[in-house]
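Deliverable D5.2: sample structural annotation.
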Amino acid sequence: MKRHYGKFLIAASALIGVALLAQNPVPTSPYSGEAELSKVEEWVLSQGAVESIAPELAAILGLGSDRLPVKLKSYRTPDGVSRTFAVSTNPSQKGIVISALKTMGNKMKIYSVGTAWLTDRSGIIHETIRVDASGAMVVSNTSRAAEFTNIKAFFIKKAQATAPTISSSPSPRKSATAAKEGSL
């Protein structure tokens, strides 16, 4: 009897563990089954402006030493910061660059100040670059992670807002008779 009771206790413990796991499912991404930034990347590639990233910034991000051809979407904030989402169109240098840069100038030169991040469709930071009047330098990914998260969310919302929506109500249409009558 004790032998059967012990087997029953082990089997019951295993089933309880499985039942508890079923009650706490793993959270899913907003685009279940897809990389977090895949919809934003598609949107930018289909509707973005053709531009290029400066060779200095491309080099420090590890994307080559020439100008990097990209398609991008950019939005200026009221305080003059340009939030930009750029997708490389160079087949050998894939990557997404998200930046928050403000163009500044003095009598001697024009420069940008802010931060740029290298990521991919996953939305995970691979490199963080701080840009100022003296140039660009790699900084800790955690140093600007909160800002990255905010800008990433901004672009996800922009892409969702431009996605075609499905309406349950039919769109108003003219009947063939009404169209004929109107043309007389």
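Annotation notes: The CA atoms of residues 99 and 116 lie 4 Å apart. Residues 4-33, 166-184 have pLDDT under 50 and may be disordered.
The annotation will be released with the project's public dataset once the embargo ends.
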